Model the fold of this input.
Amino acid sequence: MPRFLELPRRYNAASHFIDRHLVEGRGDKIAFIDDKGSYTYADLAARVNRAGNLLKSQGVRPEQRVMLALLDGIDFPAMFFGAMKIGAVPVPVNTLLTTKDYDFLLRDSRAAVLVVSDALVEKFRPVIANQPRLEQVLISGQVPPTVTPLQKLLDEQSDQLEPADTTPDDIGFWLYSSGSTGMPKGAMHLHGDLVHTAVLYGEDVLGIKADDLVFSAAKLFFAYGLGNAMTFPLHVGATAVLMAERPTPAAVMQRLKQHQATIFYGVPTLYAGILADPNITGESGSARLRRCVSAGEALPEEIGRRWHKLFGVDILDGIGSTEMLHIFLSNRPDDVRYGTTGMAVPGYDLKIVGENGQEVEQGEIGELLVSGPSCAVAYWNNRAKSLATFQGPWTRTGDKYLQTKDGYYVYAGRSDDMLKVSGIWVSPFEVESALQAHPKVLEVAVVAHADSDDLIKPKAFVVLKEGMGANDALVSELQAFVKDRLAPYKYPRWIEFVSELPKTATGKIQRFKLRVKA
Done:
């Protein structure tokens, strides 16, 4: 059975992750190091309180949403826990999206306040004025002369704040998860969910301790990164390094070496990129590195073995989801089986079912279902998707798995047509729609295709309009066309021109035939 921690009925997550450290004498310890400086637990607590008071001064009430479009830095944990402390609901969103995406998220969440990094303001500017519920925009970083920066607004607030009278079962925060049509769904999580993942995976599997220094290439807006670099270290009183810039191999290795990190979290694409960089050697990283974690997509066995050979540390491959908040199936530090995703994290139950809903025989492929205490309660304003995903105590993952005779789980693909690229879900429909808008394209289908490192990227099969010639220049043109309309990671890495697409009698594209061809 899932393991539920005993939490007091009066419980606010900010009290556990922030205020508790002052009571326990940890105020002078460094909590975060970002691109601008270091912050102690006392600094963090004061900043959280100022953030909560600032939101209250803007009229934010309990249960109202506060959207956070913030690059990784101290303002993220401050505004996240500041909102939770007053009973409001922070909604971190992907910082790699388009203006159209942000327009949808603001409308769907009905956020009263938007807190946005200066580098992202231009993405929001075209749609802010037409938001029916948005009342205030707060900008972190550089601002025009007529706008008061977030830092000054925080400085004007009191650093004292009592937590709202919440319970572990109050909605604490939302995380948006993509759907099969590409429309994001707001997964509603509780105040009590964060500590469950910090104990069950962070402590019991990963073994994070107070003297660890952690660095996550996965950003805080991801469920994966939120645990990696914020709630796990804050739970045990460790230190986390935050980096605003894109996690290139060079930038990642520079942070690992500079800060001598002990725990590193990445995704398979990044691990492969680091291994492919001829300038990176075994001495390029941290001499103190003791744990490496991978999630977001299945880790190819060869990458794990090459990483261990170069750095002397195994990669713990696991799987989690936005709906479950963090990893629920994982390899262990003392039990790494490359080519598998390990076994269930203690406290979570797993089963593999067939199309009839019944459990399959061991060794057979079926859909993975998970039950555990960190599950979201539902999707906001989406009853149909909620009923399809959250079924009693079980959550459908959409991932196909099989279980070996000795109990290890092996990934076998997705139940639907969704692609996971660099740890981020990509909807084929969304990429197809972008390509379809090109004047030379008649029809298009996008499927998953493995690159030379066995990592999944989008591949497009394109039928051109009559009289249009296919050539390498057109491939580049179409790729650029998609990049201009969607987040950059969604563009098709390969484009193959075909005379027609395989279809059913009713005209539905048979993508499974294209996946075989890809």
Remarks:
- Residues 427-517 form a domain with the GMP Synthetase; Chain A, domain 3 fold (CATH 3.30.300.30).
